[in-house]
Design goal:
The protein is built from 26 helices and 17 strands. The protein is α+β, with helices and mostly antiparallel strands and 617 residues long. The protein folds into three domains: 198 residues, 4-Layer Sandwich (Aldehyde Ferredoxin Oxidoreductase,  A, domain 1), CATH 3.60.9; 191 residues, Aldehyde Ferredoxin Oxidoreductase Protein, subunit A, domain 2 (Orthogonal Bundle); 149 residues, Aldehyde Ferredoxin Oxidoreductase Protein, subunit A, domain 3 (Orthogonal Bundle), CATH 1.10.599.10. The strands form four sheets. The protein has a six-stranded mixed sheet, with helices on both faces. It has a six-stranded mixed sheet with strand order 8-7-12-9-10-11. A three-stranded antiparallel sheet has the order 13-14-15. Strand 14 and strand 15 form a beta hairpin. It is globular, with a radius of gyration of 22 Å.
Length: 617
């Protein structure tokens, strides 16, 4: 079997003990890898009702069978566990170079359990691994610790680093984990989980390779897929403008949220915050993850002014929204500074920027005042208060201690009707795509297993006409502001998208390929006999039902599959909103869920999950 190293490190931090484990070969085909295998391990071996920040909640870092191959878009890996932010299943994918290096060192993943007595980091050099003291690294930001560890472990192959910053150390519930400064497992607070274990970083160097099972077919497929990606329009836009290419188009299609999701399109904002101005004023060069022909990453520099920033990773589209349009700030240099501060601290820029925009609105409406904000005036259009709030959140000082809990908990503490201004699902702040313009995204946000999510499915690309998968029934002519037919469309796009975080394929690359291409990538890499599109979609359904079962055990029910009031409020008299009753009814029927939102017995049996039925009966 190709694509797998058949070894997973298991680290008991409480006992400073390192062991080796694996999963059954049949489970590799059923759940593929990545978050699929992580979810299976989580359900089988750990206490789902444990507090997210307790020693009993594991941090599971997993690669997929495609990770570390030379196929396009195969840099990715995932960090999983019970989310400190949402209290349910949490997962966050990351690109960069760490995942490929971990596979080359001979490992499919690492499981951390328990908690270390003192700060530590894990060093992996091929088959050798050891826990080392990180007391001197505690309190340092991600940029600093990355540079220190690379210098400390130099010689031979360059070390790859996956580390938390001060936000993770201080258990900010939306803290992320950074790989080489510019690549992040940002969503669901996996950095807080890592910090709760006093684990500062993982350093890896590997000298191996990731060989496919069907080498001859693999070579031809790789060449064909790279050509296909290079010729695809979405890839060309990402290469030229980065993910911020979506700002101008999104403003035209009502996809961009403005002033905490309350304003209609504003083209002055997009003209100042979009990809063209980022490239013209601040771009130094482009950068790519391992084995990616797209190179969507921006390396930028703000050379002077109050937001001077040294050359380093630039902001993504989401960050240009959360610290730009969401607070009516059109100073892109200020957004770049906010991005650097979040990167260094290890903060998810989506949740961080969203909770700050929420605080701005609470300030405007008199729910909080300067007495609550240590004298800060949170005024729309001004980035400086947001930059100060980033530091306060990171250190949990003043109002930052409240905002560090996430917007859902902050609203409970503020009271006075603050919950009316929330835009979150299951505790996870929504990504920067407005479902009032694309109703399928509304269903996606409502039913995603980790909370509001735009990456567990292909809906964004399909509904906006960027991608089509006719071989699985996904066309390219869906109308965004319509709810009819979207449940069927979303179900298929979810079955196709969920395996991305299991095979560990970049969703941008999948957006340039066909479903058949994706199935072929898995087949030639693993050697799974007769693996085809049908089995690919079946695996997506199985993994989704597995995660949904985990959430059901944790108490998630139909009432949690919903959109917040704000996203069900039209932006204008002519505006429309998703018909959630219609889409949820159809989705539940198609997915085989009961009236409480739990997988039915027959649904689990048909998906080959008979062994977990007793867990939710």
């Amino acid at each position: 079997m190709g694509g797998y190293k058949n070894r997973i490190l298991e680290i008991d931090l409480s006992a400073s003990r390192i062991e080796v484990t694996d999963v059954a070969d049949e489970d590799k085909r059923r759940f593929i890898g990545g978050s699929g295998i992580a979810a299976k391990l989580f359900l089988d071996r750990f206490d789902l009702r444990a507090d997210p920040l307790s020693p009993d909640n594991p941090l599971i870092i997993m690669c997929g069978p495609l990770t570390g191959t030379a196929l396009p878009g195969t840099s990715r890996f995932v960090a999983c566990g019970k989310s400190p932010l949402t209290g349910i299943w949490g997962e966050s994918a990351c690109g960069g170079n760490f995942g490929a290096e971990l596979k080359m060192a001979g490992w499919d993943g690492v499981i951390f359990k328990g908690v270390s007595e003192k700060p530590c980091y894990l060093l992996i050099e091929d088959s050798h691994s050891q826990l080392l003291d990180a007391s001197d690294l505690w309190g340092k930001d991600i940029y600093q610790v990355t540079d220190i560890l690379k210098a400390r472990h130099k010689g031979g192959r360059h070390a790859k680093v996956f580390a938390i910053g001060r936000a993770g150390e201080n258990l900010v519930r939306f803290a992320g984990i950074g790989n080489d400064k510019g690549h992040f497992s940002g969503r669901t607070g996996m950095g807080a989980l890592m910090g709760s274990k006093r684990l500062k970083a993982i350093v890896v160097r590997g000298r191996g390779t990731c060989e496919p099972a069907l080498a001859d077919e693999y070579k031809g497929l790789r060449q064909a897929l790279i050509k296909k990606v290079n010729e695809a329009v979405p890839a060309q836009a990402l290469r030229q403008m980065g993910t911020d290419a979506g700002m101008d188009l999104g403003m035209m299609t009502q996809d961009v949220p403005i002033k905490n999701w309350t304003f209609p399109p504003d083209f002055d904002l997009s003209a100042n915050l979009g990809g063209p101005v980022l490239a013209e004023r601040y771009l130094k060069r482009v950068h790519s993850c391992y084995a990616c022909p797209i190179a969507c990453k921006r390396v930028i520099c703000v050379e002077d002014g109050p937001y001077r920033t040294e050359e380093g990773p630039g902001p993504e589209y989401e960050t240009c929204c959360t610290f730009g349009t969401m607070i009516l700030n059109k100073d892109l240099a200020g957004v770049i500074k906010a991005n650097e501060l979040c990167n260094r601290a290890g903060l998810d820029t989506i949740s961080c920027g969203s909770v700050i925009a929420f605080a701005y609105e609470c300030f405007e409406r008199g729910i909080i005042s300067k007495q609550d904000t240590d004298g800060l005036e949170l005024r729309w259009g001004e980035i400086d208060p947001a930059l100060k709030l980033i530091e306060m959140i990171t250190t949990r000082k003043g109002i930052g201690a409240i905002l560090a809990e996430g917007s859902r908990e902050a609203a409970k503490i503020f009271g006075k009707g603050a919950k009316e201004f929330l835009v979150e699902v299951k505790g996870l702040e929504a990504p920067m795509h407005d479902p009032r313009g694309f109703h399928g995204m509304g269903l996606a946000y409502a039913v995603s297993t980790r909370g509001a999510c735009h990456l567990q499915h292909m809906t964004l690309y399909i509904e906006q006409g960027m991608s089509a998968y006719p071989e699985v029934g996904l066309k390219s002519s869906y109308k965004g502001p319509l709810s009819d037919g979207k449940a069927q469309m979303y179900l298929i796009s979810e079955n196709l998208g969920v395996p991305c975080n299991s095979a560990c394929l970049c969703i941008f690359v999948l957006g340039c390929l066909s479903a058949t291409d994706f199935a072929d990538m898995l087949r030639v890499t693993t050697g799974f006999n007769h693996f085809d599109v049908r089995e690919l979609l079946e695996s997506g359904e199985r993994i989704n039902l597995l995660k949904r079962t985990i959430n059901a055990i944790m108490g998630i029910r139909r009432e949690h599959d919903r959109l917040p009031k704000r996203l069900l409020t039209p932006l204008s008299h002519e505006g429309c909103i998703p018909d959630m009753d219609l889409m949820l009814k159809e989705y539940y029927e198609l997915r085989g869920l009961d009236e409480m939102g739990r997988p039915k017995r027959g649904t689990l049996e048909a998906a080959g999950l008979k062994d977990i039925i007793s867990r939710i009966d």
